[in-house]
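Many introductory courses stop at the sequence. We go one step further.
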Amino acid sequence: MLGHWANVHSDFQKDHTNDPRMKYLLPELKQFWASALPYFEKEFEEIREIGPAVTRKFLEMVNAMNSAGVRLLAGSGTPGHPFEWPGFSLHEELEWLVKAGLTPLEALQAATLNPARFLGKENELGTVERGKLADLVLLDNNPLEDIRNTQRIAAVMANGRYMGKSELQRMLSELEAAAK
């Protein structure tokens, strides 16, 4: 949610034609976004005017909630809303949580431990421990030093299957080919 509002005031002013993420969008989603843009144009116009002030207020509110002990949950929005980039927007959300004043560890917990707690699955999910489900992302660099390092993915372990960089790149290439 924070990432959506924070990006909104700048994202809707951009021409996304050459955005590198476009190559991964399936034609149906590109077509839906194109058809939805006229309906969102009034919202975009209002957001362009109030976006910076709303963003500052959201950052202040998120910081205050975190300081008060509210357990925050990171989210990635919905691909049905233009420029909510599937697979990318969660990384942006983590960046905005850090900009709001969370530590990188707190931002990571908002995407891992806190949702597990919210769902009552803390004994099964949310941390790397013996006996828990082991879906995780291995990174090239430490996200505690720079939250943007969550985008430097070395490998993924999902459902007991290890996927290294070459397999992840192959999957991206397949997605890009399907999107053409």
